[in-house]
Structures are given as C-alpha cells and as structure tokens.
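Re: the 428-residue chain
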Amino acid sequence: MTIYVVKAGDSLYSISNTFGVSTQSIVEANDLDEIPYLVVGQALVIPTTEQAYIVMPGDSLWSISRKFGVSVESIVRLNNITSPGQIYPGMGLRIPQQSKNYGTIETNAYIEPSTAENEKKIVDNVGKYLTYISPFSYQVNYDATLTGINDTTILNTAKKYNIAPLMVITNFREGNFDAELAQTILTNNDLQAKLFNNILKVMEEKGYYGLNIDFERILPESRQLYNDFLKNAVAFFRPKNYPVSTALAPKPEDYQTGAWHGAHDYKAHGEIVDFVILMTYEWGWSGGPPYAVAPIDLVEDVVRYAASVIPPEKIMMGVPTYGYDWPLPYMPQGGWAKRVSPQEAIGIAAQYGSSINYDYNVQSPWFNYWDEQGIKHVIWFEDARSIEAKLKLAARYKLKGVSYWVLGVPFPQNWEVLDNMFFIKKLL
C-alpha cells in the first residue's frame, strides 16, 4: 500500500499508470464512486505491493532496508540478489511494501444504534477489522435499573466476524452526562449491587463478552469513590470471566480538578480494570473553535502520560472517524459545527473547487470553501495520512490497540491503512 497525494493535472488514469495498478482498484480502495473528481491535495490509498528505488552512492542493502522499514531478506528475495556486491549506484531495485509490518493489534469501535438494515451494513463492511464492538449505550438510572437499546442486529451480525461485544454503561441522561446520577450510584453500595446484577442479566441474555464503563462528568471530589466503584465492579464481574474496561477523558498529566478530568484517576484505573480506552479526540469539537479533532501532538501528550502510569498493554488509544465543518468567522455560542465524514469532506472540496491542505504539525488535513450564500467555511477531517500517523503512534508506544469513535461515518481509507499495517486480533 502507498499513500499518494493528488497533484494538479493528475487523473485516475495517470496515477494508475504510475503505480502499475488498475484504476478500479484505486476507486475501490478509496470509495471514489460518489466523489465527482479528484481534488488537489487529496490523499489516496494505492493498493500497491512494491515500489521502485534507484540505488544511490553509499547505499547498502542494510541502509536501504532501514530507509524503507523492510527487511534485507525481503529486498534480496524480491530482486533475486545472490550477493550484496551485486548492487551498485544507478541500479533499479524493487522494494516490497510494508504490510503487517507492525505486528498484531486489538481494535474496538463504538456504534450508535440506528436501523437494523443500516447496522447490518455497517458491521458487514468493517467486521473483519474489529476485535471488539461497543453499542452505545445502556444508560444507568437513579434506581440502578438500565435504559436499554435495541442491539440485537449489531450483536447478531458481530457474531459472523467473531467480534467480542462490550456492553457500554453510561451516566448519560437527558442529553448529557449527569454528575448527580453518578454521585447517587457511587455513594450507595446497595444500588451498586443492584446495578451489577442488572448488567449481568443483560450480558448473559445477549452474549456480551465484557463491560465498558463510561462514567463522565463525575464530581472531582468523588475520584476515590469512582475508584472504589470500579474495584467493586471488577470483584463482581472478573470471577464470572467478564473483563471490565473504562473510558477515560484525555489529559496529559494527573489533573485532579475539572468536571471532565478530575475524577478519572489514570494510575488507579490501570491497576484496577483490565484495560482502558483513552478518548483522544474532540480538541476540535462542534461547539468550539476550528481545529483538528485529534491533533497528533496533543494525542501523544496524553498517550505519553497514560503509558507512564498504566501498562501500555492495557491502553487503547481513541481514534476519530469524522471531522467538523465550521462556518467562519467562528463565534462562541454562535451555532454548532456540522459533523462530516472524511468522504463527505472530500465531496465538499470537489463540489466547491477547493484544494486540500495538510498540517504536518498536527497531522490533519483541512480546507476552506465558500458556500452558495457566500459564507466561508473551514473543514478539519481525517485521511489516510492522519490515520497512519495515529496508528504508528500506537505502535511506537506498544499499546494494546485503538478504539474508534464512531462507526457509521464512512471512512474506507482507515480500514485499508489499518489492514495494511497490522494483523487484527480476534478473541472469539
């Protein structure tokens, strides 16, 4: 696989000729059917298996292998080299593409229930790439009952691909995470016992593999109460062979104040639960100023801190599958940015004749356009380059894996890049 950035004058035909692949293979890898034409600055996944390289003075097989991140043996085998002395400046070599070069990874993806037809299509499209799937979400009530979701189609389709489903519970209520609701549960052991039994009943009836606890906006002073709640949950579910995981708000150090961060004790979660999911996205968010949703430098700050207090093999790094479209100038409380998929973003750029820029500091693409009313917009989104950067970050820190928010947002390039870089672990 190669990632190629479209230049002025490029066409599918010229690109396919350059790489020696069919135009149809490029169309399929990038789902180009609904995009009217190529956009300057657009990243394309090219399904190649090798690339050409001209030997330079001073090159050796070892230095070339280091340059491309492949083994000496793979270059020797592809070029039928019998002796290292056979290479010389000006010689053309075929370099094998990196494929599954980063080993094995676990993947999770959250999915919001919609319609049975849509859910089946979504899971069928990406099922082979997932270790876990997490229908979002069962909402905890004040009396420790659960407001359920219709997850039947998601779970049934997941079985076809040996995906381990995680039951997600939240303190989400009336459009936001409810601190008072969380406090009610965290301060009452009887309610906790009732809640755990209600969760267990659902897990047994529906065949869930494990539990994912996503309690947010907990009062910072209830940090220890939340840790104790997690200890109680693990003590209840682990003997029954259900792993317990948590979702953690992103922070680069141990913030102990703040509605979103204070109660999330990274070190304690690492000691208590089986694994954690870092919600490393939403720096650029619908209600805030335009910015990359998951800027790589800030994501790494969180990962670096997390890996210093949690075993890396217990960490799943969050990855967004979407971007946002902000009307400009940005005005606080001036309306919400619209969520867009990477496919939608490319389509908008094509529709309005925009070129796509790439910010290498944050490893994210963006562009401007003017709509029919003459209003200027900016879109920050994800593409093959930004995803490759995030997956390399997860590999560099030797993390357990990555967790996507959210399925149902078309992003075919993500799965192509993921599949090229890693073997996906299946637990079932």
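The longest strand covers residues 104-111.
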